[in-house]
Design a protein that fits this description.
- This protein is of the alpha+beta class.
- The chain has 13 helices and twelve strands.
- The protein has helices spanning 2-17, 30-45, 54-71, 110-122, 125-138, 149-158, 191-211, 223-236, 241-261, 294-309, 312-324, 330-334, 336-345; strands at 20-26, 86-93, 96-106, 141-142, 145-146, 162-168, 173-180, 213-220, 272-279, 283-293, 350-355, 360-370.
- α2 packs antiparallel against α3 and α8 runs antiparallel to α9.
Length: 374
């Protein structure tokens, strides 16, 4: 897992460089789509200068997520590989939002799709309205829904072109990235900048695939954001009730650790960090990363070493002593959450410290939950 933790630090830097806040990569269901919308809407409410464009962002997200769900078929997901799952990304650079969705398609679908996208991009706003009505009136339907109706609506809502890229998967399939950039008014968007953001997402997508990361949240970790994130996570995890409860408990402990011990950087007044869920055939992985002062990191490292050295009996005894002895020092109290994670998972708490500057380190934590732990 140490290699996964090191990858998270790389991912954290990539996401911050590209101003990425939230990524979901995996199977899309109606419940998951609803939770993605709730989480993103909650974060939009906390953003300044988003009022005028918020409804359009939300509408574009709905269309984009529905598009992924429509094309998520066994025919397209022909290989049991995470790369063949859809992806949703939202990012903000300065005052501009970028909404990216992606899904695998057959290469035979590319020519008609490209023709439709190019046609949409060639039309003015008034022409788009007429084209939208024409599709509605003529009722050209396919087994995937309206013939380009959703794409036309996304262009209308964004008041901008639809940017896209096809990335080859194999001889028969490509991954279709759709990049929507809503604007407040007719304005020139730097297309080189937009293409760079798509390319950045492709790099990050590759990193997600290599490590089987399915959900990533990068941003401020306040109590409010954690509550919203927890609410969304419930819909992302599809497993037995007992395992889901255990996993959820570990997630709560990991998020609370960021809230309690996360440290702001000099250029950030918030509590920045990253949260991920990954999985493979045997395990779920819950991983976090946050800044921590070097003074506190030494205490944290020692406490983690001690907690990881305990047998189960020692863990239970230490847990009871800390819980019921009000005179226990703060250092031992810090380890209570780690002890709880060990008891719930029957695994050590994995960790890694990356040097950031003279005052701060970046603490990466990982918990592994076996899928057989019912």
């Amino acid at each position: 897992m140490i290699q996964k933790l090191k990858s998270i630090y790389k991912l954290f830097n990539l996401m911050n460089y590209d101003h990425l806040g939230y990524i979901y990569h995996g199977n899309f269901t109606d419940e998951i789509t609803e939770n993605i919308l709730k989480l993103t809407e909650a974060n939009l409410q906390n953003e300044e200068n988003v009022g005028k464009i918020k409804k359009r962002i939300y509408s574009i997200m709905v269309e984009g997520l529905q598009n992924i769900t429509r094309h998520q078929t066994k025919e397209n997901n022909i290989v049991d590989d995470k790369f063949y799952y859809g992806i949703f990304v939202i990012q903000k650079i300065d005052d501009v939002y970028f909404i990216t969705t992606g899904n695998p398609i057959k290469k035979s679908q590319i020519p008609p799709l490209k023709e439709l996208l190019d046609k949409i991009n060639s039309l003015s706003n008034d022409e788009l309205k007429k084209y939208y009505k024409k599709i509605l009136v003529e009722g050209e339907m396919s087994d995937k829904g309206g013939a380009g109706l959703g794409l036309v609506d996304m262009a209308r809502k964004s008041k901008n072109k639809l940017y896209y890229k096809f990335h080859e998967i194999d001889d028969e399939h490509s991954f279709f990235y759709l990049h929507t950039v809503p604007v407040l008014k007719e304005e020139t968007i730097n297309e080189e900048k937009i293409n760079n953001t798509i390319n950045g997402i492709i790099v990050i997508h590759k990193l997600l695939n290599e490590n089987n990361f399915i959900l990533v949240f990068n941003g401020e970790f306040s109590k409010e954001n954690s509550v919203n994130l927890l609410s969304a996570i419930k819909g992302h995890i599809t497993t037995s009730a007992s395992l889901k409860n255990k996993l959820f408990y570990v997630i709560v402990e990991m998020l609370q650790n960021i809230e309690k011990h996360g440290t702001k950087t000099v250029d950030n007044n918030a509590n920045p960090g990253i949260f991920l869920i990954g999985e493979d055939s045997e395990h779920f992985y819950v991983m976090t990363g946050n800044f921590i002062s070097k003074e506190e990191s030494q205490q944290m490292k020692k406490r983690l070493e001690v907690v990881n050295s305990y047998t189960r009996d020692e863990l239970e005894r230490e847990y009871s002593e800390i819980l019921f002895d009000f005179n226990v020092d703060d250092v031992r109290k810090t380890g209570l959450g780690f002890i709880d994670i060990r008891l719930k998972t029957d695994n050590k708490v994995e960790y890694w410290f990356e040097n950031y500057n003279d005052n701060l380190e970046f603490l990466l934590l990982g918990a592994k939950i076996h899928k057989g732990n019912e």
